[in-house]
Design goal:
By secondary structure, the chain is α+β, with helices and mostly antiparallel strands. About 45% of the residues lie in helices and about 25% in strands. Helix 1 (about 20-35) crosses helix 2. The chain is globular and about 50 Å long.
Length: about 90
């Protein structure tokens, strides 16, 4: 995944996430908003096939890059759990 940082400060980040769609972006935003240190998390897709722009602002001195990384880890952990459960169904 290609990531381009558009803006980065102590409490805000704006990045483009190349070739990601609404499914991934919605899941990521939902996971970000579960973090009490995240003030705002949203994304914008200007056109149907454009790369989304993710914007995250934080409070209490939380690093916005770290909040995204943590949300991605939680998100991928849920996928790993689902995969494990599906393996038990297959047997």
């Amino acid at each position: 995944m290609n990531i381009t940082v558009l803006e980065l400060s102590q409490d805000k980040i704006r990045v483009t996430l190349a070739k990601q769609g609404h499914t991934f972006m919605n899941g990521l935003v939902i996971e970000l908003l579960k973090d009490p240190r995240v003030d705002v998390a949203n994304y914008l897709m200007e056109f149907q096939h454009s790369d989304p722009i993710l914007m995250v602002t934080t409070v209490d001195g939380a690093d916005p890059v770290e909040t995204i990384m943590n949300a991605c880890k939680r998100f991928s952990g849920k996928c790993e759990t689902l995969i494990e459960e599906l393996h038990t169904v297959q047997k």
